[in-house]
Design brief:
The structure holds two protein chains of two kinds. By secondary structure, chain A is α+β, with helices and mostly antiparallel strands. Chain A folds into two domains: about 50 residues, no CATH class; about 190 residues, Sulfite Oxidase, Chain A, domain 2. Helix content of chain A is about 30%, strand content about 25%. Chain A has seven helices and ten strands. The longest helix of chain A is centred in the first third of the chain and has 28 residues. Chain B is an alpha+beta fold. In chain B, the strands form two sheets. Chain B has a four-stranded antiparallel β-sheet. Chain B has a two-stranded antiparallel ribbon with strand order 1-6. In chain B, strand 3 and strand 4 form a beta hairpin. In chain B, helix 1 packs antiparallel against helix 2, helix 5 packs antiparallel against helix 8 and helix 8 crosses helix 9. The chains are: A alpha+beta, B alpha+beta. At the A-B interface, helix 1, helix 2 and strand 4 of A face helix 1, helix 2, helix 6, helix 8 and helix 9 of B.
């Protein structure tokens, strides 16, 4: 019991530093091993299930007052689709552009921007919650997706809605998907207006999805086509969205 | 309590309960995965704001700018930490490159991946939260909270707290039977971690989730906005880091062998009473 405290201090500090170093470099190797990723993914499934079970699936995302809006709604990701088709539509002010709703529907739809603007609309001031951590509050105006789905008459097998977009990452067009509970949620709209003006190109003109209880990457911009499907297995690489397939962001994107 | 009055320095006594020891070592690991993955998540947007929103975005020629109160920026080889109006040159440490506000040796994983960091963070969040909830419930039932950690009225007297601070500053720690119980500074810091920092971390973390703020809108009211909640989350993490640093320093100063043993086996050897004439530097720690 008369050991030198100096020695034991040094031992402990050296030990702790070495241990921390090993732990950190070990973590990286561990992080890439399939069994660890499998374990971490199980936590992800738990988070998903618990969140869905404790939250009312009809709960509304918080809405804000006009005085609480971001002075400017920033753009992010793709801000100008590169296809010649899109350039053509943009130069014509989208007068010949049509939204297609097809897949597992009894009555496929083709709707012009004028049709969408003439339909019953909803305006909501909501928070855009980016997975990276930034937040912007904007005022969105658009058509509730549920009313369009009712007109298109979803078939009983339909379980998901896939949004096919005009913008690309490399050669891959952007795509996203949601389930029918979010599809028929009253705040889920196809927005053609932002902050009392037409939706700017940088924010997804002519039409973007707002699915307010999920993260930013779910808010697909430049929506061209909505496809009702029974499974996401054949969409992209099977995880339901571009970022989900390419860098493993979560599909349900609730947290 | 009566038994402890007969104890003296040098006695080997039972100090930490099994539940405390299990919880301690589980979290000694978990907290580093949470901090490492959290710093990587911060790297995705190394700016903090107050209020409902903040994007660090401004277009050239416009005046729109959600000014962060804290940010780590990078420009070529130069890294800068700005807090309010204070600029700190952190070249080589913070802001090493665009996605390395915090450098790779601090983050989990070590190179930029927001998706993988989120997997670690949200997995170990469960490992942090569920055992914490069980431990708190258990500590209520076995009177760890009320008996071992709750300060007495006498201990909360400013004079007593001041005395303990002075004694700690002079590195004169309790000896003999007095070392069996937590002193007031320990009680305050452990209670702060258990009942203030961890709950604040959980609630501010949940406030970042659009699914959770739809389900529990009071979260945004509590923190006055998602951007504020992210700031609170970061500040609370910093307080936990400060706690860990002080905690480790105190373990080393108080005699690491005895302290670490007491957290593994539960057995603690009470420090011997000081001979007032013996200079502090020659005093055996154990």
């Amino acid at each position: 019991m008369t050991q030198s405290p100096t020695l034991s201090r040094r031992t402990v500090i050296t030990g702790a530093t070495t241990g921390a170093g090993l732990l950190l470099s070990g973590c990286d190797r561990l992080a890439q091993s399939p069994s660890v990723m499998g374990l971490l993914n199980s936590g992800e499934k738990l988070t998903y299930r618990v969140q869905r079970s404790i939250s009312d699936r009809a709960a509304l995302a918080p809405e804000f007052g006009a005085g609480q809006m971001s002075a400017h709604f920033r753009t992010n990701g793709n801000t100008m689709p590169s296809s010649s088709d899109y350039a053509q539509h943009l130069s014509e002010n989208f007068v010949n552009w049509k939204l297609v709703i097809d897949g597992l529907v009894a009555a496929p739809l083709q709707l012009s921007l004028a049709d969408l603007q003439a339909a019953p609309k909803r305006t909501q001031i909501t928070s855009h919650n980016c997975v990276e951590g930034w937040t912007a509050i904007g005022k969105w105006t658009g058509v509730p997706l549920g009313t369009l789905l009712k007109s298109a008459q979803l078939r009983p097998q339909a379980r998901y809605l896939v949004f096919h977009c005009a913008d690309n990452f490399g050669a891959t067009p952007y795509y996203e998907s949601i389930d029918l509970i979010d599809g028929f949620h009253p705040q889920t709209i196809l927005a053609w207006g932002l902050n009392d003006a037409m939706l700017p190109v940088g924010n997804g003109a002519p039409l973007r999805l707002r699915v307010e209880r999920q993260l930013g990457y779910k808010q697909a911009k430049y929506v061209m086509r909505i496809e009702a499907v029974d499974s996401l297995a054949h969409i992209g690489q099977g995880k339901g969205g571009y970022w989900e397939d390419h860098i493993d962001y979560e599909w349900y994107a609730g947290i | 309590m009566n038994a402890s009055t007969e104890l003296k320095g040098g006695d080997l006594v039972a100090r930490h309960r099994l539940s405390t020891r299990l919880w301690h070592w589980l979290n000694a690991f978990t907290i580093f995965t949470m901090i490492g993955s959290g710093l990587m998540i911060f790297n995705a947007h190394p700016h903090l704001y107050w209020g409902n929103y903040g994007t660090n975005y401004w277009a050239p020629g416009t005046i729109f700018y959600d000014r962060p109160w804290l940010e780590i920026t990078n420009s070529g080889p130069h890294g800068t930490l700005r807090i309010g109006t204070v600029m700190i040159n952190t070249t080589g440490v913070l802001g090493v490159s665009r996605f390395e506000a915090f450098p790779g040796w601090m983050t989990l994983p070590g190179s930029y991946s927001l998706a993988i960091a989120r997997r670690w963070h949200l997995f170990f969040a469960w490992v942090l939260v569920l055992p914490w909830a069980i431990y708190m419930l258990w500590s209520l039932l076995n009177r760890h909270l009320s008996g071992d950690l709750a300060p007495t009225k006498a201990e909360l007297a400013p004079r007593h707290i001041l005395h303990d601070i002075v004694e700690h500053a002079r590195l004169r720690f309790p000896t003999g039977a007095a070392a069996l119980h937590h002193n007031i500074l320990q009680k305050i810091s452990y209670l702060a971690v258990l009942l203030l920092f961890i709950p604040t971390m959980i609630l501010s973390g949940l406030s970042l989730s659009p699914g959770m703020t739809a389900a529990w809108p009071w979260l945004l009211w509590l923190f006055q906005g998602r951007a504020s909640a992210r700031s609170v989350h970061f500040i609370c993490m910093s307080l936990i880091v400060a706690f860990i640093v002080v905690h480790l320093v105190m373990v080393v100063l108080a005699g690491p062998f005895n302290e670490i043993r007491s957290m593994i086996t539960g057995k603690f050897r009470l420090p011997r009473e000081r001979d007032p004439k013996t200079p502090l530097t020659q005093e055996p720690v154990q």
